Automatic annotation (TrEMBL):
It is found in: Membrane. Its main location: membrane. It comes from the Eukaryota. The keyword Protease does not apply. The keyword Ubl conjugation does not apply. One of its GO terms (cellular component) is membrane. It comes from Sinocyclocheilus grahami (Dianchi golden-line fish). Keywords: Membrane, Transmembrane, Transmembrane helix. InterPro entries: Tetraspanin/Peripherin, Tetraspanin_EC2_sf. This is Tetraspanin. Signal peptide: none annotated.
Length: 194
């Protein structure tokens, strides 16, 4: 009998009943953990409520390089500004339009919200200054669409790709569970032969 025969038949020489009685609790717990992981990932990825609660209230936009880089990438990629529009920046301590705000960026938006001028090679990082205080149409200077509706639209447009990635990851994890189960069977077969 070769090693592959032992791994296929399990550690009990073909007694599938004994194999399942010993391995069923382990396989069940791993499967339940896997299902719970898929459930939590799906809820986090597709739940609309946490996305709709996006807030620019904290000053983290200016204080964290990672938040700045991520926000700028999203704004530039989707041509959006704020969670639901440019006025969401009133919740930020640097960009709000209150009289008590001493910031130079008062009533402005980050430069990533600005519409790109094709004639400019260099990004104007001050293009968003005072743009929300002006009485002219904001649409000529900045993107007025919010990023949450843009994300929802992108998710709907790319649902097959997103679902394919989730299914691919799920299959890889199932394959890992099967390999782990096979390894346990091989270990038990070696133990039994001692």
């Amino acid at each position: 009998m070769s090693t592959s025969d032992i791994s296929v038949m399990g550690a009990h020489g073909g007694s599938w009943l004994a194999f399942f009685q010993e391995q069923l609790p382990y396989a069940t717990s791993v499967t339940l953990m896997y299902i719970k992981q898929i459930q939590s990932n799906a809820l986090n990825a597709f739940s609309v409520l946490p996305i709709r609660d996006v807030s620019l209230d904290e000053s983290a936009f200016q204080n964290s390089r990672n938040v700045i880089a991520c926000t700028l990438f999203v704004f530039l990629q989707w041509e959006c500004c704020g969670a639901f529009g440019a006025d969401d920046w009133n919740l930020n301590v640097y960009f709000n339009c209150t009289d008590s705000n001493p910031s130079r960026e008062k009533c402005g938006v980050p430069f990533s919200c600005c519409t790109k001028d094709p004639a400019e090679d260099v990004i104007n990082t001050q293009c968003g200054y005072d743009v929300r205080a002006k009485s002219v149409k904001q649409k000529t200077y900045i993107h007025v669409k919010g990023c949450v509706p843009q994300f929802e639209k992108w998710l709907q447009d790319n649902l097959t790709v997103v679902a394919g990635i989730f299914i691919g990851v799920a299959l890889l994890q199932i394959f890992g569970i099967c390999l782990a189960q096979n390894l346990i069977s091989d270990i038990e077969a070696v133990r039994a032969s001692w």
